[in-house]
Amino acid sequence: QVQLVESGGGLVQAGGSLRLSCLASSLTFSSYAMGWFRQAPGKEREFVAAISWNNLSRYYADSVKGRLTISRDNAKNTVYLQMNSLKPEDTAVYYCAADQSAATLRLMHDIDYWGKGTLVTVSS
Fold first, then answer.
1. Which of 38, 81, 98, 102 has the CB geometry, 3.0–4.6 Å to 32, for a possible disulfide?
2. Which DSSP category does 30 fall into?
3. What are phi and psi of 104, to 5 degrees?
4. Percent of the chain with pLDDT over 90
5. What is the mean pLDDT of residues 10-31?
């Protein structure tokens, strides 16, 4: 059974940094594009970032460009989200997802696998 387990969330002050990790199991990790999404209280889930299976392509939502960086380590079956210059509006539950297409991740259409999320709270 495929599992995606996020970690690294927590409480941070505005301007601070966090690094989220997502460990995948029972998945041919190196064959999947990986993505990060978030859902703020009272809002719909939204795309944050995605990375292709071969590490050659990365995609970001406009709201996070220049502040958040997605990366992956295929040897460790792990995808990361480095979050810098955090703002209160970044407060959300952050979800990891896997799909064979980075385009599918960007469109949030029929994604293969989801994690359960990790909470990030940014205080002002």
1. 98
2. G
3. -60, -40
4. 94
5. 97
